[in-house]
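About this split. The held-out portion is used to measure sequence recovery: a designer receives only the structure tokens and must propose an amino acid at every position. Recovery is the fraction of positions where the proposal matches the reference. Here is one held-out target exactly as it appears in the evaluation file.
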């Protein structure tokens, strides 16, 4: 699921929500753990990861202040791309996911522009990966990814220069690459241009075009 829209339109606000008005994260993860609890005969293991894609670099947002930062790269896997070395922590309930999200939000790159005092300068991807074994012993794996995209911005309006301007150019380029990927998937093109940005490369799965509809993409427009 992607939150997409102009800078300052309320994407991060709607993803995070508040204590009296839960956002997309809370609602999604409450439902996920409710379903997991109901499947009493299944063995379900869930792990969470949070990354930001900043200036075409993948950054691990779950590192503590003393953890060693390493350069992360997207690698090709059989069922989808993955990032070797990325922190993935077991999560057993919504509170544990919320704790990961708090760490991620605190580590995310934010800056002030004319259009948003706390503008996200990166795409934030929150991923829950599940390994599930049904009562017959058959194993499945699955992932849900919620992406709070950095906002598209007109440089003249956001009034940015220097580093902020470079960030805005990268943000706009990667949003355009995401649009191209979604269009190619929707049209079931033989080639999907995943490699045109780190965002789309990170999110690449390996569904052949004829099976594209088994991978749900939801866009929230702001
Ligand atoms: N529905 C709302 N009610 C009250 N305040 C809101 C609402 N939506 C957004 N805001 C406020 O508007 C400001 C901008 O919102 P937010 O940071 O969520 O925008 P954004 O789309 O994520 O921007 P960017 O792409 O620049 O990161 C914030 O101060 C936020 O608290």
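Reference sequence for scoring:
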């Amino acid at each position: 699921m992607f939150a997409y829209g102009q800078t300052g339109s309320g994407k991060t606000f709607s993803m995070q929500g508040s204590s009296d008005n839960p956002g997309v994260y809370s609602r999604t993860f409450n439902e996920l753990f409710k379903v997991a609890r109901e499947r009493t005969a299944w063995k379900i293991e869930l792990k969470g990861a949070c990354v930001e894609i900043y200036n075409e670099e993948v950054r691990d947002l779950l590192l503590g202040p003393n953890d060693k930062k390493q350069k992360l790269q997207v690698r090709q896997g059989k069922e989808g791309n993955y990032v070797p070395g990325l922190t993935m922590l077991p999560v057993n309930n919504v509170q544990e996911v919320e704790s990961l999200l708090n760490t991620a939000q605190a580590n995310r790159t934010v800056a002030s522009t004319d259009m948003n005092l706390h503008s996200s300068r990166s795409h934030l991807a929150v991923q829950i990966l599940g390994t599930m074994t049904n009562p017959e012993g058959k194993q499945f794996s699955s992932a849900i990814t919620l992406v709070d995209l950095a906002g598209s911005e007109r440089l003249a309006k956001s009034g940015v220069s220097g580093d902020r301007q470079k960030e805005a150019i990268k943000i706009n380029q990667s949003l355009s690459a995401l649009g191209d990927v979604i269009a190619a998937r929707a049209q079931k093109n033989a080639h999907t241009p995943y490699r045109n940005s780190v965002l789309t490369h990170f999110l690449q799965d390996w569904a052949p075009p004829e099976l594209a509809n088994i991978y749900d993409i939801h866009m929230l427009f702001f």
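Annotator remark: The beta strands are 2-4, 43-54, 57-60, 89-90, 110-111, 119-120, 123-133, 139-148, 219-221.
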